[in-house]
## 1
Amino acid sequence: MNNNNKTILLVEDNPDQVLLAERALKKANVDGNMVVMADGEQALNYLNGKSGSELPHVVLLDLGLPGIGGLEVLQQIRNSPQTRNLPVVILSTSDEVSDKRDGYAIGANSYILKPVEFKRFVHVVERLAEYWLELNEHYTNKVN
């Protein structure tokens, strides 16, 4: 895949999950840049410091974050004129109906359960990258 000028923002506090995602992206031959933020506050600060074409092409958001939780991060992304159209994929181990319902109600573009098996995780990451970095037409608000 040719994604070298495209960025994935991974918001994940578990270093093992971050390593797994990095390995999966490499194994899936995804050339895009992955930026990792370990908590919701870092992610929001990162996004608020970007504008227009500097924004990531997709946010992969864990729900169980320290401090500002994933659903609150999503809410703040959707409330900001600068980031409201940013694609956000919840990537979580939670299979709770309430988490799925709330995630979609707030504005998640997708909700994906994190696979336990590495091979399956690689497959999921490869499909995510293919869709969000190759097939999806990226749009950002141009806010002054």
Note: The CA atoms of residues 8 and 34 lie 5 Å apart.
## 2
Amino acid sequence: MISLTAWSTLLPAQKKSKKPNVIFILADDMGFADLSCYGNMQIRTPHLDQMAAEGFKAGSFVVPAPTCSPARASFLTGKYPIRVGIPYALGPGNKHGLNDTYFSIAKMFKRENYQTMMIGKWHLGDRSDTKPTGHGFDHYYGMMYSHDYKYPFVKTDTTLAIFEDNKRVIEKPDFTKLMDHYTDKAKEFISEASKKDQPFFLYLPYPMPHAPVGTTDQWNGKSDAGKYGDVIEHIDGCVGQILTLLRQLDIDENTLVMFSSDNGPWNEMPERMFGENIVQPWDHGSVGPLRGGKANTYEGGHRVPFIARWPGHIPAAQYSLQSLVMFDMMPTLADVIGFPGNQLPRDLDGVNNWPVISGKSKGGDRTIYYLNAGGKYEAVRKGDWKLRIAKVKDAEVQLFNLKSDISERHNVANRYPGKVEELTALLKHQEETGY
């Protein structure tokens, strides 16, 4: 007679436990209220809505700095961007850049024997020591900068090229076709990677809806929110293609997919963007009930969508107002893939928020975080309170209670001098020690 133990070894369902695949999709300049699952009534995003319905949606996910380069640096390093030499959005040839000596999220995945790939916008420097392949990515395919680095928006067109690893392969690509092109490349990578007995990590930073916005004939006129809305629905369609592929490959239940944005909408674009009638002042997203947008330290600049889906590991319809920050992704994903916490850098600013995302905890470990813009710390949040002191002449001290005033319309600094003193001391300490 065969024992139960022996029978169990013969069952076809018996498989070795495998580390999960991870896909992190990043939009560019997407507003907090651009998706229908975040309340937009004019734009339809059924695939991202389904992700949220089947997984986790954050109501208070923030980036520590409200512009492209710093937010991306914080994702990759788990630290405030100022501390890794990225104080503001970088232009071509900038002396700053994310040096490849820093421990990165991709290097973490490599240590766990993952295949790693980045497809899309880098925007973290163009020196030889700041390229994606030096940061733990086996391969890179995409553009080093935003697609507005060309005439008439910027007085240069030398940067507009798609790179494969470190080689220029397509000069001056049509920006309206980048979304589909990157999605095809992502599907190609996922299909090939799934054939190997090795998990994969894909970082997919899309170029849209950063201005100038534009899309293909398939999506033009599809939304009820003009050209910008068409682009958001196009992004949703691309996400849908990736989710469909995961199901077709039968790796859906072993793949964690996350979606977010690098900062809020560019609702105060500079005059340089309006040349030759290509970009219109309304070609930007919505912050919903929030105030501000890209490049400032009001909530509209920092608070962005965040959705995570992993069947069987994240319960359906999870929603949380717990404060999550972009640099939490490194320690959070370390937990997901079993990377030892004692091998992470000791000076990380991020905390592990997997218990919140996976529905195992209602509250996270963070009580305080700081917001910076233009290379300077301007705001601090502690609990429901937020102190903001923009670094301009005669800057007004602003105190908001975000629980009762999410729109930051009522400055209550004069009513709560003790709270102002407490938070000012915290902000001053961060300014002196947080670099």
Note: The first strand starts at residue 21 and ends at 27.
## 3
Amino acid sequence: MATTFGKQNVSNFLQSVSLMSRKFASFCHKTQLNFDWTVSPEPEWFDHYCDQFYNFRLSQNPLWAERGIFGLLAIKPGATVLELCCGDGFNAFHFYSGRAKQLISVDFDKGAITHALKYNQAKNIEFKLADIRMEMPKGTFDNIVWDAAIEHFTEEEIAAIFKDIKQRLKPAGVLTGYTLVESPLGKGLSHHEREFKSKADLLSFFEPHFTHVKVFETIYPSRHNLYFYASDDVLPFDEKWENIVIR
């Protein structure tokens, strides 16, 4: 009984310390977030530790996590992965690197790559500074991830990037990614070149390049999200997908 009572006291103390540390981390990330996004110019990338330690509890919106999870569903253990427009490297470290054998993550923003190398590095991740319109890494990959970035390019640039992606995907390779539906009030960020009106609008960009495409949505009060899977082979949730049983 004494041991149990002693352990409970210690556990209660540790929980209190953990609570205080969470509150402090939340305050720091809230302050960072407000500064980064209210003082001009707006950054080209987002520090997702602000989601983890502040936004998630405040909003109860799992958008920041579902993006990594939906992308991970298409990645098999031991896969080679190319991540385009990786931003802060949060998803590369927390979602993809645990399953991928090799992961090359690129972004054109020097600040994003510097941040990724400092805070989200892993042995199987190679972060590179590259503009994918001109410097997309060579090689072939089981998966290519293009998350929260297709909207940063013009229609002509998107078509050209798709051609480069197809040259780098293995025959059974899968392209995954995320974007958002354009608000009736206009573009969500000044950096966005081409936001999408609907699932069908986004789907039309893939159809000339891939045999199989899935576009699906999640809807929150603050954002209407679109996710995509594209391949010339099996996609997640197809009848032949190895991770599913359909009656």
Note: The mean pLDDT is 94.
## 4
Amino acid sequence: MSDQRLKDIVPFVASVEEGSFTAAAERLHLTGSAVSKSVARLEARLGSRLLERTTRRLEVTDAGNAYYQTCIRILEELAEAESVLAAHRTIPSGRLRLAVPNTYGRLGVMPLLIPFCQQHPEIDLSLTFSDRFVDLFDEGIDVAVRIGQTVDLPASLGCRQIGREKMVFCAAPDYLQRAGTPQNEAALMQHRAILYERVDGSTKPWLFTTADGHPEWRSVPYRMALGDVDAQVQALCAGLGVGQMPTWLVHEHVQRGKLQVIMPQCQPHGLALTLVWPRRKQLLPKVDALLMALGALEISPPLAAPALDQ
């Protein structure tokens, strides 16, 4: 990109954001004529009208809006590149955008973010809780925490696997006192299952490990199917049946005695916990500091499995 092309982008962006050449000129410490000529030069080079001039205000055309979005990304990347070159700074600062899954974000990530923010007062954290797929580039995310497979990631994304879920079968102690505690898979299948219901209406099967160590998903009949993991935990604690849950989700309930681990010898590994970030941002002090803090995330806390009195 030539110097002149870059020089013309800045007045154009300022004109769009300020709504007039005069206000853009004041912002850039230029004359209104200089800003107007710069935008006209840009339009002539592109062969497209970017701004409609009115007596009161500039109006952005469809082509101008599309070009403006591109210019914003270019200027942001230039600013980030300058920050990378100054990565020797010891104080992470600036806006930091993090995307996390809903429930794991609350239970697993937030306990680490509180001391992180206390340690780095110069960082302004923006946190998005969502179970949907988040596009880091389209949504301006610096780091994402994901539970699930991260195959076929583009080369522009960095990825670090923190660990894998450990799945456990569990139920409320009073349910097991009424229905009995299963000691093998055949007995387990006779109990009332509480399953997770996917968006498409299907239910998530239970995960087992075969004799040769391979994962095996098995569909099971169920008493209740819920499309929310927190609701699953509530149903289990209420004694409505048996469920297979990740340890990070039921750890606290097991410690408090609200849930009991069943068949502790059967704890297969579930989904992977990964950190994902744009590679061009990984040398930014704020991103590097966050990645180091999130490296302490725990996805499979150990669970005690005290025996029930029969």
Note: The longest helix spans residues 62-85.
